[in-house]
Amino acid sequence: MQFKRSYKSPVGNLTITTDGENITGLWFENQQNYETLLNDTVKEQYQPIFDKVTHWLDEYFSGNKPTINFSLKPTGTDFRMNVWSKLREIPYGETVTYGDIAQQIATERGQSKMSAQAVGGAVGSNPISIIIPCHRVVGANGSLTGFGGGIDRKIKLLNNEKVDMSSFYVPSYSTKP
Asked: What does the pLDDT read at residue 169?
């Protein structure tokens, strides 16, 4: 069984999920069908781990660099788990590109290269937003793309970490009539 709790943050309401011992999800309000990604029934019920996570989030949104003192248990394929572990290595207040992560994984596997798009798919399926910092990944050209919580939230999270935003941009997408 999974349990959930809401948290009001500066980037909107968040939903935290746990199996009672580990954090299994941290989702933005209106993020696509997060509960369908869980294998169990989700019940709103207090769990002690929620206190640790909400304290961590309070510290994070206060501009501090809190230490994670609770366990995380995202569920995914081996490839996704590998990408998510790389996300956890990105220092607070810094960014990397999808290509950087792809190259790291390719090197570890003894390959000459790996698809940045495959990494992007794994980053986009991260079930524990903010704590597993997928918002710190940007496009090779400095574009702020590919964030499940929305680009506005990505910008707010990077600003919260005092990332120098002067070299980033939000690509505009136009459609021809």
From this structure: 86
